[in-house]
Amino acid sequence: MQENISAKKIRIKGIVQGVGFRPFIFRLANQYGLRGEVANTSNGVSIHIEGKANTLESFCEDLLKEKPLIAHITHCSYQHQHVKRFNDFSISKSKVHRVKATLISPDISICNDCKTELFNPKDRRFNYPFINCTNCGPRYTIIEDIPYDRAKTSMKQFKMCNNCQKEYNAPINRRFHAQPNACDDCGPQMMLLKKGKNSVPLREPLKKTVELLRSGYIVAIKGLGGFHLAVDAKNNKAVSRLRKRKNRAEKPLAIMAYDMEMVSRFASFDSDEEKMMTSHQRPIVILKKKSNDSICESVSSNNTYGVMLPYTAIHYILLRNNFTALVMTSGNISREPITIDNNDALRKLSGIADYFLMHNRDIYLRSDDSIVRKTAKSSRIIRRSRGYVPSPIYLQRQVPRILACGAELKNTICLTKNNNAFLSQHIGDMENLEALKFFKMSIKHMKQILNIRPEIIAYDLHPDYLSTRYAMEQKGIIKMGVQHHHAHIVSCMAENRIAGKVIGLAFDGTGYGTDGNIWGSEVLLADETQFVRKAHFDYAPMPGSAAAIKEPWRMGLSYLIHTFGKDIWSLDIPFIKNIGKEKITVIHDMIKKRINAPLTSGLGRLFDGIAAILGIRQEVNYEGQAAIELETAADDGTIALGRGYTCSWKKGAVYTLSFQTIINDIINDLKQGINNSVISARFHLTVINVFADVCECIRSETDLNRICLSGGVFQNSILLSGLTTTLKEKNFDVYAHSLVPFNDGGLALGQAIVAANMIEKPHS
Ligand code: ZN
Ligand code: ZN
Ligand code: FE
Fold this sequence. Notes:
It is built from 23 helices and 30 strands.
């Protein structure tokens, strides 16, 4: 009897190369008894498949459902074909030699199969720290150029042994074309050195490292995207020593624990957070501390920990049965990017680390650990780096080729091509030459491996940012400045794939405004090409300029002087007494004579100032610390969301919101002995209510109903949840970030999209 056979051509685009896609198709086809072939093409994977019609359908369904974990399909098309009567199913040779249009996979945490082999004494890779397969291992950090072949990676110096080569060549093997494939006979090796010149490598480096960490030593450990500085998280002395040597007084330190069972001993999490922790990106996840846990206090002074699971075999070997958790903080000195090079590490980190656990596989591109947190019911990326980069953000439509340079703090850059936006890994604060070097190198490297030659360069309007200056120096390229908060809002629109006019709430600490002042409590009417400033808080002077960011007491004083004028001297609150007459006089003069006191409407500064007035924090050790502690104060107490403070605001072409009434109410509460927890909660509620009112008023004027939230201040979960809920109750459509950071780490995306639209319709 003649079977009813039909045939199909399936073309798939996305991250489908170097991720075990062809072996997966091979297995699936055989499972269904289908025949045909699969091959890599210049822009993805192409499958010819034939068999019974209903079986073909099941195959197509499973293809999408059961695809390899790290494969990402952006496009899938089906076409009927003539039946060619294949005898079997095979993986055929790639149809092209230069694979250019395909996407490069990010680095992927070690998979379960490899982990099982790692701890199986009978496996030939038992305890081999560089075990990997097509489903896992390093990618982005070891790629020098495209196409993604071993010869173009830092694995090129390791020639595969016969066993490895056989696996590499066998289509159904898990290591088929796994570029970093290696074993103990042929691959990279670990070494452990004591600090100091001419140190001899110690034997059994991993075993010895465990002993050293147990004894309280600080070990610099080379990982996937750079060095970590590691200590036992239960050893208070060791953690304190690390803090002292790293000159990092209070910023919480990230920790790594073996598995979720171990994590549950010191932190609580729900199923979403567990999913984030165990995802192949393995980010640092911000989790609530459990009371009376055994991690030492100096790891984090907040009520949270930044926790991650192991993501390489090295981590698993170190943590297995040995520690509740290890502090794994990035291996860098004073605000420089993390160290990736062995010699650099020995030179730069020898003032911090006692020992160095290193290996001879080079890292080409550093990539910090990513950070995520569940806020207002969704996962939010705080730092998008290892594991995510260079996966693109998929845009709604095609855009020109653009390079966007970002701003200054937490910087990233963005390159666009077709309908993909590639945000770089975390570059960091662009405050020194090392960071600038890394910035330039990242641009060069990403242009290379993504094969993008930008036609347009976008930058922040702040004339002094190193990123702006870089853009200005470029020749033969169209230059476009984009206002900071406009970029924030359009970044939010882009990731939510919306277009047209919206009401944008951009709240942050610092962003250069078109009037030369510092903005940061901006309500904008915006689309992708332009914006109108619709509302913001009154300006307040920042006495001492940048010093006022590091020392919130200056802002506290500024708001008080603005509110009470001369009466400030008679304010009977501890804040005033503690600062003392002398300092107050100096600040008063600076403000009055406008010496080194630029104007700001930044909401972040208002949070800072209030934290100072309440006596919560006078000087910060890291960005946002005062605001975070103000939020924590409300979090700890009862959120007395009964009433907020008065915040009067004036309508007009631009609405201005007054902080004076808020400050006045807070002082009254303080005088009555109301505690910080209640005051902080009331302040949060005030901000939520006033902006919800402002939005309603704007809606009645403009008929706009979509609201985009962006800017680093929205990392405050009370504000994000509260404002989202309130606006939704008023029937607004609310959009926020989850794929890119609220903070300036997501800014370059917005810059790129604004530039793309400005070039296309410059006068609209
Ligand atoms: Zn694997
Ligand atoms: Zn080998
Ligand atoms: Fe910003």
